[in-house]
Specification:
Belongs to the MIP/aquaporin (TC 1.A.8) family. The chain has one domain: Glycerol uptake facilitator protein (Up-down Bundle). It is about 70% helix and about 0% strand. It is built from nine helices and no strands. Helix 2 packs antiparallel against helix 6, helix 3 packs antiparallel against helix 4 and helix 3 runs parallel beside helix 8.
Amino acid sequence: MTRETVRRAAAESVGTAFLVLAVVGSGIMASRLSPADTGLALLENSIATGAALVALIIALQPVSASFNPVVTLVERALGLIDTTTAAALIAAQIFGGLAGTVLANLMFGLDAVSLSGHERSGLGLWLGEAVATVGLLLIVFGTVRSGRADRVAFAVGGYIAAAYWFTSSTSFANPAVTIARSITDTFAGIAPASVPGFVVAQLAGGVLGFLLVRLLYPSLTGAADAADRKVLS
């Protein structure tokens, strides 16, 4: 593994950890501040998550700022990174996500690991995850390939904050975050038994998203791929 790959993996791990800290931590805070109003708690959770995403992408984009195995797999499918790098980044994302959940639990005086009892399953929720993931990929790669790479952070943060509300699943759209959220029995948690269905739906959304990106934003020259590498790496 090269020094550059280690550097990128570190950025992915730290970024995913802070993303999950935002998701889980704000979920705990929201449920404590608004225990009788689930809608308000979700609003608080979505705003915190979207804002954190904007900040994290801006800060870590010069190194690596995917924070999502599906995005990384699409980068690999597009030929932007090699298999070894993709594997290292995905492992870092999963590790970072789990670390973020543990830290969030500890910050709020909970057990470091507590398996969630919040079951999330059913065709409607799985469809919501697939839709959320397709949309995320279109936002990420579409923004880059349309020449507005400097707006990726705001586009992604805004999309995720909105997708909390317009998808039935509240838009996990990220296997690493989904796995991480299984070890917190709080507002943002998901039961371990529900994780496989969500991950399969996210991967299915990833395939469709990849096909749409290739259809809508074909690489007409090497310049487009070079721009992708610079922004997404």
